[in-house]
């Protein structure tokens, strides 16, 4: 027994020796590299609010998402150098104001004084005195009254302010075109009696040095005017001095028709539109904007008749300047010449 144990050795020791024998470790599992993320050159981390605060990068919901780019601010409207701020872009012009567009109403006037025909003629029977003369048209009979230094009241009534020096003069007329009016001798004005400053301008409280009122009214069989049916035209004027002589300068003409007061105004360009004898290709008859339609719209207050109604409707939303003189536009008045009764 002793020999076996001594000669064969300890079998457990031999087994333990086999366990302590070293072996190479297994290779590590392969590592799959992560895909490289492209860097967006337009995205930068914002600066930290405080020096020692960590940086915060924006977190997006999924790869490839970027926040929308903010829209640019609209340009500044108004003065570029407003108090307390600096200009922040181009200054846009203010939109043109809305311009009222109206249509003219046809009014029948029974008497008309041609304002370009008012003249002062010397009174040969009374040296130093001058008589008023003019031409007029009338479709009805009526009367003409000459006032010196008159003031207009309600209902187009005229009140003389110097009746003690020059009393009003009334002369009746019959219907007819191209009639001539002349003051009777001895009823004229003597300019040496008045101050020159009173003659050359409209006085205080709207007193005009000269006013002529022409009343037209239908008459019955006895040629007596019928009350309540009359209309009138009033011509108000001042005197002007040219080479030492006084002349008449008409300031305004007023119509009184059916209890309504209208002020007559000249229209520039209406002559070409009303002339039937003009050639169709004649310039000055068409609208200055479209160059095709006839002109029928007046610009106020400059009173240029230069556009058709269609172009005028478009113009009032785009600009407030007259196409002819570039003055500001207050109203547009459409007139149908010769097409409507």
TrEMBL record:
Transmembrane segments: none annotated. It holds the Pfam family zf-C3HC4_3. Residues 287-326 form the RING-type domain. Residues 1-34 are annotated as: Disordered. It catalyses: S-ubiquitinyl-[E2 ubiquitin-conjugating enzyme]-L-cysteine + [acceptor protein]-L-lysine = [E2 ubiquitin-conjugating enzyme]-L-cysteine + N(6)-ubiquitinyl-[acceptor protein]-L-lysine. Its EC number is 2.3.2.27. InterPro entries: LOG2-like_mRING_C3HC5 (IPR045195), MGRN1/RNF157-like (IPR045194), MGRN1/RNF157-like_N (IPR058981), Znf_RING (IPR001841), Znf_RING/FYVE/PHD (IPR013083). Keywords: Lipoprotein, Metal-binding, Myristate, Transferase, Ubl conjugation pathway, Zinc, Zinc-finger. Pathway: Protein modification; protein ubiquitination. One of its GO terms (molecular function) is zinc ion binding. Residues 11-23 have a biased composition (Basic residues). Residues 24-33 have a biased composition (Pro residues). It is an enzyme of class 2 (transferase). Belongs to the RING-type zinc finger family. LOG2 subfamily. This is RING-type E3 ubiquitin transferase. It comes from Flemingia macrophylla. The lineage of its organism: Eukaryota, Viridiplantae, Streptophyta, Embryophyta, Tracheophyta.
């Amino acid at each position: 027994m002793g020999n076996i144990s001594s000669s064969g050795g300890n079998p457990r020791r031999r087994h333990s020796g086999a366990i302590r024998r070293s072996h190479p470790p297994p290779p590590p599992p392969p590592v799959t590299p992560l895909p490289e993320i492209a860097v967006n050159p337009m995205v930068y981390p914002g600066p930290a609010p405080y020096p020692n605060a960590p940086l915060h990068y924006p977190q997006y919901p999924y790869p490839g998402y970027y926040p929308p780019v903010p829209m640019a601010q609209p340009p500044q409207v108004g003065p570029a150098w407003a108090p307390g701020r600096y200009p922040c872009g181009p200054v846009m012009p203010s939109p043109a104001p809305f311009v009222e567009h109206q249509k003219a109403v046809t009014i029948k006037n029974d008497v008309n004084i041609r304002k370009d025909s008012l003249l002062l003629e010397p009174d040969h029977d009374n040296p130093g005195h001058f008589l008023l003369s003019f031409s007029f048209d009338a479709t009805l009979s009526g009367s003409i009254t000459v006032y010196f230094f008159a003031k207009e009241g309600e209902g187009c009534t005229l009140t003389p302010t110097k009746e003690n020096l020059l009393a009003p003069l009334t002369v009746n007329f019959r219907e007819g075109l191209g009639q001539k009016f002349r003051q009777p001798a001895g009823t004229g004005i003597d300019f040496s009696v008045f101050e020159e400053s009173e003659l050359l301008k409209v006085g205080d409280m709207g007193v005009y040095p000269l006013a002529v009122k022409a009343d037209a009214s239908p008459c019955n069989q006895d040629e007596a005017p019928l009350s309540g049916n009359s209309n009138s035209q009033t011509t108000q004027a001042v005197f002007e001095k040219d080479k030492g002589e006084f002349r008449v300068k008409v300031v305004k003409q007023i119509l009184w028709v059916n209890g309504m007061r209208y002020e007559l105004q000249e229209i520039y360009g209406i002559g070409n539109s009303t002339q039937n004898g003009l050639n169709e290709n004649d310039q000055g008859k068409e609208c200055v904007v479209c160059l095709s339609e006839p002109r029928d719209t007046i610009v106020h207050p400059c009173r240029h008749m230069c556009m058709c109604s269609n172009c005028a409707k478009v113009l009032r939303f785009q600009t407030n300047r007259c196409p002819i003189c570039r003055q500001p536009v207050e109203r547009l008045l459409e007139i149908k010449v010769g097409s409507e009764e």
